[in-house]
Amino acid sequence: MGLIKEPKPVKVFCAILFREENILNIGLQKLEDFFGKVDIKSEIFHFDVFTDYYKVEMGENLKKVFVSFKKILSPENCFKWKLFSNEIEKQHSLTSEKPSRMINIDPGYLDLSRVVLLTTKDYSHRIYLGKGIYAEITLLWKHGKFEHLAWTYPDYKTEISIKFFERLREALKKEISLKT
Question: What is the CATH number that goes with domain 10-179?
């Protein structure tokens, strides 16, 4: 029988899709109120080049940024992170007009061996966590670099994204070494 152990702490990140900087800033403030201060931020990049999936709901000229938070957390109840981000999205949605959602926030976490996304969408490669939330491993750390999987979204394969997750991994390694 294996011994039950506490999970190791992880770096929380959010992928934020938006059109207007003011909505991004409002969303970031709410995320900082929940997770603590942002410590690493990727470049903002154009998202429309990857897909038009959100065009009807969110409009055109969408941008994306990845942010992480200084505090490391246990992933034990990570499904609550997605429930919280959904509330922010709901607060910043228009009910009578299209496009309706003004911000899309996808939280996830990084440990030393993988990047995990949290989602409301079920699929064959996703595992149910609770309260309608699923987890997906989207990048693996192998042979000293991140490798994508068959289902990894194209924007997670970019140099901007990979550099962000490499920085995140280094920050987590440093944090873990300070604790030991």
Answer: 3.30.70
